[in-house]
Amino acid sequence: MPATITSIAHYFPPDVYPNSYFEQYLDTSDEWIIERTGIRERRFAKNGATSDLIVPAAKLCIERRGIELKDIDCIIVATVTPDYLFPATACVVQNKLGIPNAWGFDLSAACSGFLFALVTAVKLVESGGVRNVLLCGADKMSAIVDFDDRAQAVLFGDGAGVALIEMSEDPELGVLDHILHIDGEGGKFLYQAAGGSAKPASIETVKNREHYIHQEGQAVFKAAVKGMADVSVEIMKRNNLTNDDVDWLVPHQANLRIISATADRMGLSMDKVMVNIDKYANTTAATIPSCLSQWWEQGKLKKGDKLVLASFGAGFTWGAVYMKWSL
Ligand code: ACO
Hints:
Order of helices and strands: EEHHEHEHEHEHEEEHEHEHHHEE
Number of strands: 13
Bound molecules: acetyl coenzyme *A
Mean pLDDT: 98
Structural class: alpha/beta
Oligomer: single chain
Largest sheet: 5 strands, mixed
Number of helices: 11
Radius of gyration: 19 Å
């Protein structure tokens, strides 16, 4: 019997920043941003930390499932913007929600964070080690974005998606296959240089703006197009899925051009692709669960639908998951 997603919810902070916000102080334009990325607006949290994005989504997710806090066994937080380097944001979330009997940890896989954490949670549940996992994909990207760099300021947003992972009641439905990869060679193209043990925070690191994202956009773009498309096609092939069989591609939302290229390689029309980058930009670990939650809320995602989830991110990290939706 596979494990599956038995509840889902998301949260975006209320403050909307349209592309025109950046036009006021950067050499950029609404047209450039839309054409090169597909992004029209994003949300930034004015206050609080990543855990504060998770808490409302987690409360809704738990309420929708109708279970009690004492029955949650494990909390995993996928994020690259933890509240602190330590303790884990999972501990902060546990405390803020008042979950009494759980263990948990954070998982760092950047934009692939939700996929890596989903597979981890599924394996934990399927092993019988825990009954369920509260799986949180969340990032407060505004905490690490360099707002003076037009090549990154416009790309990101803040948000959270939370799913509950439990055993499926139907052997046909749930997470059925996965392919995950890492390649540290790609690390040099997308990273946060300082603040870790390699380069502890100092006056110099702050002066050199080394606590912000460093991204070589084109190198990441090329690797992302290939990585996400290859792995999505591979998971289709080994599960004997044609393009007609796939109901939804649920891609990480980094750039609409990367998403379209992946859909193209899979032979899917864009009406079978979940896209929320236009309204929320790249929310890193929150993109995939927030899409699932929004599509499910709107009644567009139905029980039995065949989904390919796909991601590419810093590390490099990338992968795909094949699942049949069970809600
Ligand atoms: N407005 C106007 N011009 C801009 C902007 C902007 N906001 N940003 C960059 N430019 C300029 C550049 O300075 C450059 O100008 P130049 O030719 O005078 O030097 C020109 O536009 C072209 O720059 P490119 O970087 O080649 O632009 P590109 O078309 O590649 O788009 C982008 C840049 C959007 C960043 C793209 O490369 C991309 O999406 N990369 C992948 C991002 C990604 O997938 N990240 C992984 C996930 S994130 C994570 O894991 C945390």
